[in-house]
Structure formats: C-alpha cells, structure tokens
Amino acid sequence: MPYQTSKAEQKPIHSGSLEVHLLGTVDYSAFLGLQEHLTFEMSGRNDLNGKLFLCEHPPLITVGREGNSNDVLVDEFECEQTCLPVRWMARGGGAFPHAPGQLAIYLMVPLDRLAIGPSEFRTRLETAICESCIELKVPAKRLDHSPGIWGRGGQLGFFGSSVRSWVTNHGLFLNVCISPKYLAMTSPNSDDQRGTSIQAHRIQPIQMPKLRESLIRTISSQFGYETTDVSTGHPLLKRTPQQETSHV
Fold first, then answer.
1. Where do the domains of the chain lie, and which CATH numbers do they carry?
2. Distances in Å between the alpha carbon of 171 and those of 121, 158, 182, 203, 244?
3. pTM score, two decimals?
C-alpha cells in the first residue's frame, strides 16, 4: 500500500525507501527485542533505507536518562497492585507513561549514511509530528530547549531517543486519546508542564487512520523518502490483546 509524498513538501529526495509497519498493540519488551535485532541488521548494511513502526503499548512507565524516581508520581505499592511495570531505559528523556491511546512512533534510520546528526534527527521528527497535529486542527509546536511536542494545554508528545551503531532507537510517544489517569502518573518534563492529549484539544473524536496516514506522509517528507511501503504487523511480532479501549 504505497503512499507518494509531495515533492514540494520534501527535504531533498535520496535513493532510500521507508518501510512502515502498523503494529496495533504490542508488548513493550517484545518490541525492544525486535528493535535490537533490526539495529544489528541495519547497521551492517550500506543503504539509506529506514523503518517506521506505529503502535500502542499496554500500560507501563518508562524512565530515561534524564528522569529519576521522583518523576514517578505513583508509589511502588500502587504500581504492584495495578500491575503497572516501571522500566529504566537507556534512552533520552524523563519518565513517560504509556497506555492504549498513545501512539508510539519508532523511526529507525541510519544517521551516518543519511548525514544527519542526533539533534537534526529530533528536529525533523518533531517537525513532522507538529505538521500532522496542525493538519488535525490541533496547534502544536516544538521547542529547541525541551524535547517533545507541545500544545496549548501542556505536552502532547514525549521524545526519548537513543542511537546505537548510528541507527536510531526508541522514539516519540504522541498522546492521542490516552486516559488522563496515566498522564497524571509521571512528571515527564523539567518545565512543570502537565501531559495532555490531542483529543483534549478537539470536540470530534480522533480518526486514528487519518492521523497515521498524515504521520507517514510528513515523516517521509522530513527525511527525504519519496515513497513508502506500508504493511500491517511484522513477522517477528505478535499483537497483544487489548485490555483498554484503543483506536489504533
């Protein structure tokens, strides 16, 4: 199912292609295993091809290199009672909640072969996501000094990335229609801005397929991919049964 991006909107086009996987709901640990496998595979090649994964995760909290235990606003007993895992990760960013209704955006590209540094990678990815939010009539912006996507009511998206063998890992987590109870479980940024969602800025429900189509187009454009190949699922992953209502 190819999407053709507009040449007028693109960064300079190169010879690489973007492989897109719509995964549904995926266990977080399972995806990390897949990402590690693909990082090894991609780092051993010499092409410009990238991979984009769009999915959701069952409820958990992850804490990156800029986070600490004080950023987790629920105590250990409550996490145990609600079966809410807390994972410490070797990625940028602070403490992020994850749950159905939050779209995980994992873009894996070879930075060295694309001649892109980590800072430019963040700028391009955040810019693409802001463009998609604006297409949905939701004002969004990025800030040079503070990673993520920001709206009128707080932080719409959490950026937490890492680079291994020049291949980007982890990603950006966009709060689409996630329950506010999860956003209240962490302090995700240093600006004392609360987490919010795209749905909180809209009257009409979010059409997730429309959002995903927009993200595929804007991300492809920002990273110079002229065409993308889109598929559902991945042969090395199994979907996780959903325990909460989701729109992916």
1. 2-232 (3.30.930.10)
2. 11, 9, 19, 28, 22
3. 0.90
